[in-house]
């Protein structure tokens, strides 16, 4: 399955496009199902997009529920917490369903899986959008190369056996990531170029196993793969001006 690829000349247009994709998915979900269930990732790449979403207040609505593709096993106040990143940028209007990183990892995974089963019923949880990153080693969410977590078929949420960046993690499993209606993967920086090329070549890295995900890249991250896709004209990009969704009447 191919991956649509969009390459951006700078971090701001990259972030604005990510916002446009998130808001578009929320609008479609609202129109079709009167609710939007999205899963966000941590890391540094999405921060600016999250800040813009927070400024626009576009996810601060009772019909939007924010979940996590993964979480580090740390308290929510910890700088490494993905919940803290989202709460500080997007904001938490009482609609953020965090993974409890402060409890025992396997218990946190079981608890989050129960929450998802309660929310989605027994079918695979079809998030309206999953916003994912790509690690330099090709991981996505907290699914790392050659990790035992990649093999799971029954579980929706698992704790990593290993620590990664000093902590164990809790992560959605591949079947859940691939059950989503839409997935977008964000990657910037030359250190991601090799992993991005692996994804585009259908390689073995976990990020390559996210079927059909749209890739948003900067030119450095796209450097190792196909020629940059046509750049969207400035006027095609979402005009985030000073208005913002929150001011629309
Ligand atoms: C996390 C993320 C992880 C991240 C990649 C890329 O918890 O860290 O879910 O999968 O998306 O590691 O991280 P950067 O955006 O910091 O490069």
Walk me through the structure.
- The protein has a single domain, classed as 3-Layer(aba) Sandwich (Rossmann fold), CATH 3.40.50.
- Helix 1 crosses helix 2 and helix 2 crosses helix 3.
- The longest helix has 23 residues.
- It is of the alpha/beta class and 249 residues long.
- The C terminus is likely disordered.
- The protein is built from seven helices and nine strands.
- Bound molecules: 6-phosphogluconic acid.
- 6-phosphogluconic acid binds next to loops.
Give the key terms.
single chain; 249 residues; alpha/beta; Rossmann fold; three-stranded antiparallel β-sheet; 7 helices; globular; binds 6-phosphogluconic acid
Named at the architecture level, the CATH assignment is 3-Layer(aba) Sandwich
Structural class, judged by helices and strands?
A: alpha/beta
What is the helical fraction, as a range of percent? Answer: 25-40%
Number of domains: 1
Approximate strand percentage:
15-25%
Q: Please state how the strands of the largest beta sheet are arranged side by side.
A: 1-9-8-5-2-3
Kindly identify the CATH topology: Rossmann fold
Strands, count: 9
- Distance, first to last CA: 40 Å
Number of helices: 7
Mean pLDDT: 92
Shape field: globular
Order of helices and strands: EHEHEEHHEEEHEHEH
Largest sheet: 6 strands, parallel
What is the element layout, followed by pairings?
Layout: E1 5-8, H1 11-33, E2 36-40, H2 47-56, E3 64-68, E4 70-72, H3 82-89, H4 105-120, E5 129-133, E6 157-159, E7 169-172, H5 174-179, E8 183-187, H6 193-200, E9 214-218, H7 219-222
Parallel strand pairs: 1-9, 2-3, 2-5, 5-8, 8-9
Antiparallel strand pairs: 4-7, 6-7
Helix pairs in contact: 1-2, 2-3
The structure holds 6-phosphogluconic acid (6PG).
């Amino acid at each position: 399955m191919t991956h649509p690829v969009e390459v951006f000349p700078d971090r701001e247009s990259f972030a604005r496009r990510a916002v446009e994709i998130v808001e578009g998915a929320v609008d479609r979900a609202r129109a079709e199902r009167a609710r939007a269930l999205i899963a966000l990732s941590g890391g540094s790449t999405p921060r600016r997009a999250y800040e813009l979403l927070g400024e626009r207040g576009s996810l601060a609505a009772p019909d939007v529920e924010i979940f996590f593709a993964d979480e580090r096993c740390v308290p929510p106040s910890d700088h490494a917490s993905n919940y803290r990143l989202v709460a500080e940028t997007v904001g938490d209007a009482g609609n953020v369903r965090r993974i409890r990183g402060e409890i025992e990892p396997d218990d946190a995974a079981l608890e989050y899986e129960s929450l998802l089963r309660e929310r989605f019923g027994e079918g695979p949880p079809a998030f309206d959008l999953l916003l994912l990153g790509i690690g330099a080693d090709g991981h996505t969410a907290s699914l790392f190369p050659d990790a035992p977590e990649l093999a799971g078929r029954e579980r929706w949420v698992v704790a990593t056996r290993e620590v990664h960046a000093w902590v164990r993690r809790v992560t959605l499993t591949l079947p859940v990531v691939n059950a989503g209606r839409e997935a977008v993967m964000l990657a910037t920086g030359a250190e991601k170029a090799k992993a991005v090329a692996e994804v585009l070549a259908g390689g073995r890295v976990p990020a390559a196993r996210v079927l059909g995900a749209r890739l948003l890249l900067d030119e450095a991250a796209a450097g190792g793969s196909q020629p940059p896709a046509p750049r969207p004209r400035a006027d095609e990009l979402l005009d985030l001006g000073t208005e913002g969704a929150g001011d629309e009447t």
